Amino acid sequence: MISKLQLKNQISSMRLILLLFAISTFASYAQSPQSGWVIEYPTDAFTEDALLDLRYLNENVAGENGFIKLSTDGKDFRTTNANKPIRFWAVGGGDLVRDLSDADLSRYARYLAKMGVNIIRFHGAIHPKGATSNMNDVDMNEADAIWRTVAAMKKEGIYTAISPYWAGHVKKIPATWGLGEYTGADDPWALIFFNDNLKNAYKHWVDVLYTTENPYTGIALKDDPSVALIQIQNEDGLLFWTVQGVKPNLNTTMEEHFYTWLVNKYGTIEQAFTAWSNVTIAGDNTAAGRVALYIIWEATQQQTGGKAVRVSDQVEFLTEHQRNFYTEIYDHYKSLGCKQLINAGNWRPADATLLFDAERYSNATNDVMAVNRYVDPQHVGENNGWRIDPGHHYVGKSVLVEPQKLPINIKQLDNKPFIVTESAWNLPHKYQSEGPFLIAAYMSLTGVDGYFWFSPSAPGMDPFPYYDFTNLEGGQKAMYRWTVSTPGQIGMFPANALLYRKGYVKQSEVVVHEERPLSTLWKREVPLISEESGFDPNRDEWGSGGNNNETEIPPIAHLIGTIEVKYDGNPVNNIISPKVDSNIDFVNKITESATGELKWDYKKGICTMNTPSAKGVSGFLGVTKTFTLDGLTITSENDYATINVVSMDDNIISESEKILIQVGTTFRPTNWSETPAKFMLNGTEVDGFKINNTGKMPWRAGETNVNIAFTNAMIKSAHVLDVNGYNKKELFVNRNGNQLSVTLPRDAMYVILNTEEPKVVVGLEEDLKRKFKLYPNPSNGNFIIDVPEWFSSGHVEIKNTIGETIWVNENISPGKNEIILAASPGVYLFSINKKNQRLTQKVILK
Predict the structure, then answer these.
(1) Which of 185, 275, 361, 608 has a 20 to 30 Å separation from 330 between CA atoms?
(2) What is the per-residue DSSP string for 765-827?
């Protein structure tokens, strides 16, 4: 055992530094990243020394248990051979592979697996790009990037989802493609649904992509079980606003199809107009076999009389046409021999309440449902769609005070899995650390099967998330907007990926089951519940009747449990759990999950997770400071933080032998500067922030100020890790029987607790001094020392500058302790000792 003299010698050099701090810093901590700690991100060698590496959660090789299939009830994913449930903690970023060397691609895949990712989406563009290209050509460079992605990810147990087409990627259309007025830079929104030339070209593109042997694996994609999902197309639909801007030649084709559809429905076109009470609009030309279409805005409004019937027919026509397109393409993939699950699309309609069910019905002809939905920072400024500049403005409210904006508030189909194929808390959001916490918790609760974070911008945490070609005032660079390779997002993956994939948060019962006859979709009748709403739960009370589109069930009921819908069903079978009412408190602004494991206070902006194997809290913690969960207490004075405590060995926390503590505060680039400001957003003046400086690397983090206390008889030591998961330093674990506590240092992001015998830890961590409050300082001789509860008891002494003890307490107690020091004015050394721990500070006697 180390002697007191040896200990004193070991820590003497460290204590000299601490003498420079006044005792008032015992209670200080940095809330702003600029006065916090620097995040260092060394290159990861991926050695076995890492204490945090989630690669083991993945299969040795993706697809080793066969193709991903559906569960018996169709709601979830399974592996074919093992027939085990599989949940996807997912990322976009497959397209990043285009610019990666083989070595960087390998490192990228290994990094994602380490962080808990088990599927990646390649959102690509395999159409030809050349100005004189043949429309049936395939961009073989893009196909090669997809093939490389599949091969590299497969080795790390990561599945691939492939999205090969997006109209927004088609930026140069040669006239030789024969797409009529769609040439040059025209975005061909909605065109593929009606134009046979483009549709057939698409079929040829995917023929080549899926049936050609992958040169990196030796098998075609159609036969590769590591390809989990095929997405037909991305972000386009006939019920969205873009359908109002189609060019005349496409509009003519649509009108011709509408005419034919009406004749099939009514027998003659005259009978259709009779059903409409002879309502006509400009553009009707029945002699030419055309019936005009209203702009989609009309379908977002309440209609009456013959116009209501006509608008309903138009919605039915567009929905059925879109559904038939997806059925045709689905059948084409199967004719190629593709064994993967298929998703039609991921888009939204012009009105979420009135049209989303129609959009979803059109997609439901395929295996998997999906949506793209982001947490919008309400960021405005020139080129704000892709970059962040000085002078830009944003609002950036935390979702914790706007629960209706949680992107996984999803009404799922009763017989299909549901995934979110693009989402994130986009920069310049400062409250990013809440994202992975809330997504893991509420996906688990509601049974959402996968969430793709869009999108990594580097094979690790991005060391330079800027556009290097931009040169702004003072040498600044424009910052990426669409990256999750930040400390607050990808840095928060491990604990949340682990608890989600392990199922530590229970899935709830179905709290709302809705059945909708198809006629109610065409008539745009208000459903029981919607996903997106103008309802503000912080200011409004549900049921005021002030909104014609107000649903019977408030949209924040998504926080209670699973909500599902069945199309072509009977409303007599609707089910609404009483927990929808009992678990929402509009007065105090609190929701509680049907399982009792999740509680969300959207007035304070705090969400807690309380399960046997995963506990935590996210939000504005400084208001409450202490959070008592079952067998565990979290104490924090951080203004804002997200804290996870997760078992890593499948045991409950009180019996676990390896526990991960993960902390996210706020993160900003060095020298980032913003000031409160008012600005115009969509014609309304709002409160937010003006960005003055986009900063530079490295990232900085607000200081961690957290103590965790819980019951566990096995844990013996605690280790602070670097961002790559390697041991950086050991922490002091305070134990009293089966009760233990650990105070995290200022630079804690990941801490592993395990059963290793603790090594000698020299001195209390510098951060712990903020837990002891000694005041006033300077003083006339009467001091108060406030000792935290976790310290239990210890030795406290005060010495003069020549080392003589002038005051001592051998067993100081937690709480406020009075010290009366009768001594000459001057500087004295105050120290707290406990076992092999020592903290020394100066005090000044006036």
Answers:
(1) 185
(2) -GGGGGGSEEESSSBSSEEEEEE-GGG--EEEEEE-TTS-EEEEEEEEPSEEEEEE----SEE
Helix (H) or strand (E) holding 828: strand 826-834
> Residue 307 phi/psi, 5° resolution?
-65, -40
Nearest in space to 364 (alpha carbons), one of 397, 342, 388: 342
In the chain, % helix, strand, coil (3-state, to 5) comes to 30, 30, 45
CB-CB neighbours of 649 under 10 Å:
11
- 296 sits in the region (left: phi over 0; alpha: psi -120 to 50; else beta) called alpha
Between the alpha carbon of residue 317 and those of residues 172, 262, 307, the distances in Å are: 30, 8, 15
Whole-prediction pTM: 0.89
The secondary element (H helix, E strand) that includes residue 829 is: strand 826-834
For CA atoms 542, 595, 374, 243, give the dihedral sign. Answer: negative
* The token pair that represents 11 in the structure block: 């820590």
Using an 8 Å Cβ cutoff, are 414 and 369 in contact? no
Distance CA 122, CA 130 (A): 22
- Could you tell me the two tokens for 254? 């649509």
- Determine how β-strand 562-567 pairs with β-strand 510-516: parallel
Residue 41 confidence (pLDDT) above 60: yes
What does the pLDDT read at residue 812?
78
Contact (CB, 8 A) for 346 and 233 = no
Q: Give the separation between CA 491 and CA 434, rounded to whole angstroms.
A: 12
Of 357, 362, 358, the C-alpha closest to 330 is 362
For 170-197, the DSSP string reads ---B-GGG--TT--BT---TTHHHH-HH
Classify residue 559 by burial, with Cβ atoms within 10 Å: 0-12, 13-18, 19+: buried
In 67-165, which ranges are E strands?
68-70, 77-79, 88-91, 119-123, 159-163
The overall average pLDDT reported for the chain is 91
Q: How many residues does the chain have?
A: 846
How is residue 27 written in tokens? 């209670």
